[in-house]
Design a protein that fits this description.
By secondary structure, the protein is an alpha/beta fold. It is about 50% helix and about 10% strand. The protein contains seven helices and seven strands.
Length: about 220
């Protein structure tokens, strides 16, 4: 997914340039933000990057606050956030993750570790998009399916059914209007022997009598 843009947000121009250079060297597209407000604005766009490498401490909005805002938005494809921080105490790491960060890196980041963690993040993003697409297709399929539920009155003799408007109609008409089913008609073996075959034999008898008289 090297064609997926990555947001790099850091108020330190040196750190921002170094991280961006590492990512570009690996073939990634990079979008830059110099403070928290720029990062938040970029992440609200319809074409927002789905992965962000973001500094913890930034003027205006810091990394954890942006994470909290992102997690408050209901979406099937949330932004994957890697926090960059010089804080490596366990309590600080926990605080960042609880704010909504997906991963963290200590500053200055090592190139191989940065690329490895970005690769993991992009795999997660790809899986999220695949899952969201499958859910969308399933919802579309379910929306086109009409289900028959509840109690359906049926006549014991003619087998017609009564709809909600108290109108009696053939079963196939009712089901056809309440589902995507279409009917084709035929004969089951039992009905063929009981009804169809005697009718065919009855039709054959006069024809055989005519043939016999013609032959005589």
């Amino acid at each position: 997914m090297s064609d997926v843009p990555i947001l790099v947000a850091d108020d330190d121009p040196v750190s921002r340039t170094i991280v961006a250079a590492m990512l570009r060297k690996a073939g990634y597209q990079v979008q830059l933000a110099s403070d928290g407000h720029q990062a938040w604005t970029a992440l609200q766009q319809s074409t927002a990057p789905h992965l962000a490498v973001m500094d913890w401490m930034m003027p205006g909005l810091d990394g954890p606050e942006i994470c909290r805002r992102l997690r408050a938005i209901a979406t099937s494809t949330p932004t994957y956030v890697i926090l960059l921080t010089s804080r490596d105490a366990p309590a600080d790491v926990v605080a960042g993750l609880r704010a909504g960060a997906d991963d963290y890196l200590t500053k200055p980041p090592h190139e191989e570790e940065l690329l490895a963690r970005v690769s993991v993040g992009l795999r997660v993003v790809s899986l999220q998009h695949t899952l969201a697409d499958r859910v969308r297709r399933l919802e579309e399929a379910l929306s086109s399916v009409k289900q028959l539920q509840g109690l359906l009155p049926m006549c014991s003799y003619c087998k017609r059914v009564r709809d909600d408007q108290n109108y009696w109609q053939q079963v196939e008409s009712y089901i056809g209007r309440h589902s995507a089913l279409q009917f084709s008609h035929g004969y089951c073996p039992e009905c063929y022997e009981r009804h169809v075959k005697p009718q065919i034999e009855a039709l054959d008898r006069p024809m055989k009598g005519q043939d016999e008289r013609s032959g005589s």
